[in-house]
From TrEMBL:
GO terms for molecular function: ATP binding; four-way junction DNA binding; four-way junction helicase activity; hydrolase activity. It comes from Acetobacter ascendens. This is Holliday junction branch migration complex subunit RuvA. The gene is ruvA. HAMAP family: DNA_HJ_migration_RuvA. The keyword Hydrolase applies. Residues 154-202 are annotated as: Domain III.
Length: 202
């Protein structure tokens, strides 16, 4: 199996690139995030690879970061999520945004990805939510409570939940305060955590 390629970027197209390694051109499918991070042809690059062997082809999928490759592997473990759909999700959402979407059951964010309808988004949420916190972009697998709490403790509980996801209090506190100010009396714990995660994942 090919773990990575190191060579000249010869061509970058929509959804794929060609890497020249010692005179052999490898066609590598990739997310728009990875393709955008590649240097301009014909400069040298190192790209991580997931090799998929089928009866009729050997397919290469490339990633600039190991976090994206780990998410690709996890996403393709869900029935109905093939390599193309997984790359579409990774083109739409960063690892941090994926964690936020899964932990807050944000189906709308998932359905922004090409090929992901409501039913598939629901399956992804159901199968991967418990794993999201342990993936790159997340923390220790904390489960975010969906119930609202008394107004005085919402900020503290939100900061505790975000700390469990790996965010430092110093970076999370101003975001939580901004979200709470924006929603005022309508702020619930679930809403504050969800909106704060979206902001922090950018």
């Amino acid at each position: 199996m090919i773990a990575f390629l190191c060579g000249l970027v010869i061509q970058v197209d929509l959804g794929s690139c060609v890497i020249d390694v010692n005179g052999v051109g490898y066609l590598v499918a990739a997310s728009t995030r990875t393709l955008a991070a590649l240097p301009n042809p014909p400069e040298k690059a190192r790209i991580l690879v997931e090799t998929v062997v089928r009866e009729d082809a050997i397919l290469l999928y490339g990633f600039m970061e190991s976090a994206e490759r780990e998410w690709f592997r996890l996403l393709t473990s869900v029935q109905g999520v093939g390599a193309k759909v997984a790359l579409g999700i990774l083109s739409t959402l960063s690892p941090g945004e994926l964690v936020a979407a899964l932990m807050t059951s944000d189906k709308a964010s998932l359905t922004r990805a090409p090929g992901v309808g409501g039913r598939l988004a629901e399956r992804i949420l159901t199968e991967l939510r418990d794993k999201a916190g342990k993936m790159p972009g997340g923390g220790g697998g904390i489960t975010i409570p969906a119930m609202a709490t008394p107004a005085g403790s919402i900020e503290a509980d939100a900061l505790m939940a975000l700390a469990g996801l790996g965010f430092r209090r110093a970076e999370a506190a101003p975001v939580v305060r901004k979200v709470m100010d924006a929603h005022g009396a309508a702020a619930t714990l679930d809403l504050v955590i969800r909106d704060s995660l979206k902001d922090l994942a950018r």
